[in-house]
Design goal:
The complex is a heterodimer of chains A (about 400) and B (about 220).
Chain A: H1 4-11, H2 13-51, E1 55-59, E2 72-73, H3 76-81, E3 92-99, E4 102-103, E5 106-107, E6 110-115, E7 128-129, E8 149-153, E9 163-166, E10 169-177, E11 188-192, H4 193-200, E12 206-207, E13 209-212, H5 220-228, E14 233-237, H6 238-251, H7 255-282, H8 284-292, H9 297-329, H10 338-363, H11 370-373
Parallel strand pairs in A: 6-11, 8-10
Antiparallel strand pairs in A: 1-13, 1-14, 2-12, 3-6, 3-13, 4-5, 7-10, 8-11, 9-10
Helix pairs in contact in A: 1-9, 2-6, 2-7, 2-9, 2-10, 7-10, 9-10
Chain B: E1 3-14, E2 21-32, E3 36-41, H1 47-54, E4 62-67, E5 70-71, H2 79-86, E6 87-90, H3 102-112, H4 117-130, H5 146-159, E7 164-168, H6 176-193, E8 196-200, E9 212-217, E10 220-223
Parallel strand pairs in B: 3-8, 3-9, 6-7, 7-8
Antiparallel strand pairs in B: 1-2, 1-4, 4-5, 9-10
Helix pairs in contact in B: 3-4, 3-5, 4-5, 5-6
Classes of the chains: A alpha+beta (about 400), B alpha/beta (about 220).
The complex binds adenosine-5'-triphosphate (ATP) and magnesium ion (MG).
The site of magnesium ion has 3 residues of chain B, from α1.
Chain lengths: ~400, ~220
């Protein structure tokens, strides 16, 4: 009978629905966590990629741009200007620092990016308002009083003309840039490098990193290796920088989350296995009767597995859809990767069906004798010496 | 007449050492085609064990068993296939699947034997109608009386046209009117379907229907 397993499931409706619901929630959580990590990866890369720079230079011992503390003297720029392998005038200084600006009296998180207008490191245009007023002199002069103007991320909800406080200084919003949030929805605040030096570095000629573009005659690897040989700095290619960022900003801190995901998988598997097992214990008598009237092990197995498979497929399916709804409703940037989540869903399906199978395999070892005796030791025989058990339990 | 079931020296022990019980002790038994046999004896004498051995649910510790002429080898034989092809069972506690209707409970037996669904349904309806349950086809076991349940159970046992039906105290949970009805029905069906039937019973009143009565005592046949 095609629908035999469905009839059985309908008879145990509440359990079936609850199990499915449990799988649904677990799977959607697993996928959501994946989406959160994926979102972090995307955000970790987008600023770096947007600059167009393919060489990233930080202070010796910093472990790379965006990783350890990196403070460089701006004079090192001169050294870059004379280095071979870089596009002429492409080298530019950069300040990239965490700040705690006060917006409308409330402290918020943000990254201050100080760069040179027209050079690598910041937006080329604004989506609203205007660019900040650039400094008069390219080289550092303490008297160069650049106005405190900032371009904010469009997602920050600030209006042109509004003032925000960074450290002790008030800076004015003059434009809005296309959103390039950093990891965990941290907005970027762009300003002239001199303004950044004044609000964050007490007006000293230091920078955090330098960026440049390589000449097409050389590969970035060659150029980076060449620059890196110079003692005071660490030079990395774009690729290397991105993988560093990923490792340092996403993978390391999210290790616990990865672990949690694996645990959730285990829980999902356990849930299906447990429910299947409990169902099976309850069905011992039925299974025994089916076997007594001639059902083979594979007949009983198929009956059980169809139920496990259906519950798993529906649970995983709904969980999959739900994860997208959760992602949309999440208070942080979540981007579920379709391919990844399809793979994860498939693995989850295998985990659920697999543990259901293991439980079912135990369940079908019922002695058909139970049909005559009404009750029988439902634990399969382990020790033949046990006097109360059937010695010759037959397997089929 | 040909023997449907033939057991020689059948022995079944439970447990080991001091706790060992020889439930069936070197029993020779033969049940002929179309016979209606009653198996009687005191509680614990081994009746259930005997029909479980003959019905290929238990494997003997010693002895040989032939069903419908074939020697049963419990090691190499798929006993479930013997059960589904040659044997029908009726249990004291009915053992119908609670989530299926009367009709479906009969169809399951045929499903196990891989009968096509349409054909199974047709035959199940015919059989159930024959046993007077045409009005109860779509009732669940919980909605049926004990007598009705046992009739469904008997129909299920008949469904795959078995060579022999074993019934273990089929009337134990029925009142005397219901048991009489069931026995009359069994007698009629045996004639119609030319089936061999072995019934374990305590009911003295049922014995008059039997072709032969097998007395068991302490795991041995004392008269047959
Ligand atoms: N699994 C078992 N382990 C140990 N002893 C058993 C087991 N099954 C049956 N026995 C013993 O075997 C003997 C025969 O049991 P069986 O059930 O065949 O008797 P019976 O004639 O059907 O009794 P009743 O009329 O009460 O149903 C009994 O002494 C019983 O205690
Ligand atoms: Mg008995």
């Amino acid at each position: 009978m095609k629908a035999l397993f469905l009839k059985d499931m309908r008879y145990r409706q509440a359990r079936v629905v609850l199990t499915t619901l449990g799988i649904t929630m677990l799977i959607s959580l697993i996928l959501l966590l994946g989406g959160i990590m994926n979102g972090m990866r995307i955000q970790a890369q987008q600023y770096v990629n947007s600059t167009g720079a393919d060489i990233w230079i930080s202070a010796e011992g910093s472990g790379g741009a965006f990783i350890g503390f990196s403070l460089l003297e701006e004079e090192l720029m001169a050294f870059l200007g004379s280095s071979p392998g870089l596009v002429e005038n492409s080298a530019s200084p950069l300040i990239f620092a965490q700040a705690r600006p006060t917006v409308n009296g409330k402290p918020t998180k943000a990254m201050v990016v100080g760069y040179t207008l027209g050079n690598l490191g910041g937006p080329k245009q604004v989506v609203e308002g205007r660019m900040f007023t650039p400094r008069k002199y390219m080289d550092y002069r303490p008297e160069d009083h650049v106005p405190y103007e900032v371009i904010v991320d469009e997602k920050m909800g600030l209006e042109i003309g509004e003032k925000i406080t960074i450290s002790k200084d008030e800076v004015r919003v003059v434009g809005k840039a296309k959103s390039l949030m950093f990891v965990l929805d941290t907005p970027l605040l762009f300003m002239d490098i001199r303004a950044a030096q004044r609000v964050l570095l007490e007006n000293t000629p230091y920078i955090n990193m330098m960026v440049a573009k390589t000449d097409s005659k050389y590969t970035p690897d060659e150029v980076a290796a060449n620059l890196d040989a110079f003692g005071a700095i660490e030079a990395r290619t774009l690729e290397h920088t991105l993988s560093d960022i990923m490792e340092y900003w996403v993978d390391q801190p999210m290790k616990a989350v990865q672990f949690l995901r694996v645990m959730l998988w285990l829980v999902a598997g356990l849930l299906v296995g447990m429910i299947t097992y409990v169902t099976m214990l309850e069905k011992t008598q039925e299974i025994g009767v089916l076997k007594a009237i001639g059902a083979s092990n594979s007949y009983v197995m198929t009956l059980l597995l169809k139920q496990v498979a259906l519950i798993s497929v529906i649970g995983v399916g709904i969980g999959f859809c739900l994860s997208y709804i959760f992602a949309a409703a999440a208070p942080i940037f979540v981007k579920i990767n379709l391919v990844e989540s399809v793979i994860v869903a498939c693995i989850s399906l295998i985990v659920c069906c697999g543990s259901g199978y293991l439980a079912a395999r135990k369940g079908i070892k019922v002695d058909p004798m139970i049909a005559f005796r009404g009750e029988i030791d439902s634990t399969p025989i382990r020790n033949v010496d046990m006097p109360t058990t059937n010695v010759a339990l037959i397997g089929n | 007449m040909a023997a449907i079931v033939e057991g020689i020296g059948l022995t079944k022990r439970f447990g080991i050492g001091d706790a060992a019980v020889t439930a069936i002790d070197s029993v020779d038994i033969r049940i002929e085609e179309r016979e209606l046999v009653m198996i009687v004896g005191d509680s614990g004498c081994g009746k259930t064990t005997l029909i479980s051995l003959l019905g290929c649910i238990l494997t003997p510790d010693a002895g040989e068993l032939r069903i419908d002429g074939d020697m049963i080898d419990p090691i190499n034989h798929d006993l479930s296939s013997v059960r589904r092809d040659k044997i029908g069972f009726v249990f004291q506690m009915f053992h119908l699947l609670p989530y299926l209707t009367a009709l479906e409970n009969v169809m399951v037996a045929m499903d196990i034997a891989k009968t096509k669904e349409a054909e199974a349904e047709k035959r199940a309806i015919e059989l159930l109608t024959r046993v007077g349950l045409s009005e109860r086809l779509h009732h669940r076991p919980a909605q049926l009386s004990g007598g009705e349940k046992q009739r469904v159970s008997f129909t299920r046992a008949l469904a795959n046209r078995p060579k022999i039906i074993f019934a273990d105290e089929p009337t134990a949970n029925l009142d005397s009117r219901q048991s009489d009805n069931l026995m009359d029905l069994i007698e009629e069906l045996r004639q119609e379907h030319q089936t061999t039937i072995a019934i374990v019973t305590h009911h003295e009143g049922l014995r008059e229907n039997a072709d032969r009565i097998i007395h068991l005592k302490d795991g041995r046949i004392i008269s047959a």
